[in-house]
Amino acid sequence: MQSVAKKTTPGKTKLLRILFIILTLYITSFNVNAQPKTQQIKADTTTKFNKKRLKYVILTESILYSSSIVVLNNMWYKNYPRSSFHFFNDNDEWLQMDKIGHATTGYYVGKIGYELLKYSGVSENKSVWYGGTLGFVYLTSIEILDGFSSQWGASVGDLAANTLGSAAFIGQQLLFNEQKISIKYSFHQSNYAEQRPEILGNNLHENVIKDYNGQTYWLSANIHSFLKKQSKFPCWLNIAFGYGADGMITGKPDTENNFTPPLPKIDRYRQYYLSLDIDLTRIKTNSKILKALLLSVGFIKIPAPAIEYNTKNGIKFHYLYF
Q1: How far apart are CA 236 and CA 255, in angstroms?
Q2: 241, 234, 244: which is closest to 220 by C-alpha?
Q3: pTM value?
Q4: Which of 2, 47, 102, 137 has an alpha carbon 20 to 30 Å from 168's alpha carbon atom?
Q5: Which of these, 236, 125, 241, 127, lies nearest to 183 by C-alpha position?
Q6: How far is CA 172 from the centre of its chain?
Q7: How far apart are CA 227 and CA 205, in angstroms?
Q8: 302 CA to centre of own chain
Q9: Taking a C-beta distance cutoff of 8 angstroms, is the pair 183, 219 a contact?
């Protein structure tokens, strides 16, 4: 009997495989580009074009891109039967938490691509378009590999989410020359991982990536950026709108009986949050080390009081929500 787990595991594992690459690129790009006078992603016309640096950036990106695709193909996809290219509909799984994860990845890989091109002195417009689409290109390559595997297939929902994430970065950079609204991530341990550790993680560092019940994704809006430039409102204070989900031990609802022995049936529900946040990238400092550190963890939503509304229990207040 084929379990539902075989149909839902690949998407989660795929994100697990690329997340460490994304985070490494994210941290590295900001470490090499951390300048004390640059407090946010904004057009910088003072950086002179550096052909040698650009060649290094392109070479590094090309090696990372091609090697990661080869590694994924040889270590993962070759272990499954091949097929003609086809699509796989997984839009009803995990209450769309995996799709938001794809959008977040597309957003930050685009952010990395932009920063690295700006670091090379490439013009603002070219940096936005060429760098900002890096996430879409990379994630689309993985979807193509999915599409030629008979085990699952390319996901239209994933492609749409990848596009949305890249567009969120590119659109804001073109309109505002900065990111007024950032996508952020937070995590707390749930009670469900121990019921399916092979899917939701065996320990904390696996839970952080694999347990959607503990993940929350945020749209963190910088309040000062929407006010007049002379406003004395704190430039680092954000208001954040979050989305999460709970009660998920399988990808699709009502599939617990497909397993042997049957899994316990749990009511899954959506969660919506309102909270405050801190934009670490806008904190002024003359320390390059501290600057690099703040930028490196800037994708994390800072724990703060939050109001939750969920579709099961209604309104709930958290004194400190992670």
Answers
A1: 45
A2: 241
A3: 0.86
A4: 47
A5: 241
A6: 17
A7: 39
A8: 16
A9: yes
Residue type, 283: I
Q: Are 260 and 277 in contact (CB under 8 A)?
A: no
- Residue type at 160 in one-letter notation: A
Distances (CA, A) of 91 to 88, 150, 159: 9, 18, 11
SS (H, E, C) the chain: CCCCHHHHHHHHHHHHHHHHHHHHHHHHHHHHHCCCCCCCCCCCCCCCCCHHHHHHHHHHHHHHHHHHHHHHHHHCHHHCCECCCCECCCCCCHHHHHHHHHHHHHHHHHHHHHHHHHHCCCCHHHHHHHHHCHHHHHHHHHHHHHHCECCCCECHHHHHHHHHHHHHHHHHHHHHCCCCEEEEEEECCCCCHHHCHHHHCCCHHHHHHHCHHHEEEEEEEECHHHCCCCCCCCCCEEEEEEEEEECCCCCCCCCHHHCCCCCCCCCCEEEEEEEEEECHHHCCCCCHHHHHHHHHCCCECCCEEEEEEECCCEEEEEEEEC
Q: What's the rounded Cα separation, in Å, for the pair 172 and 309? A: 28
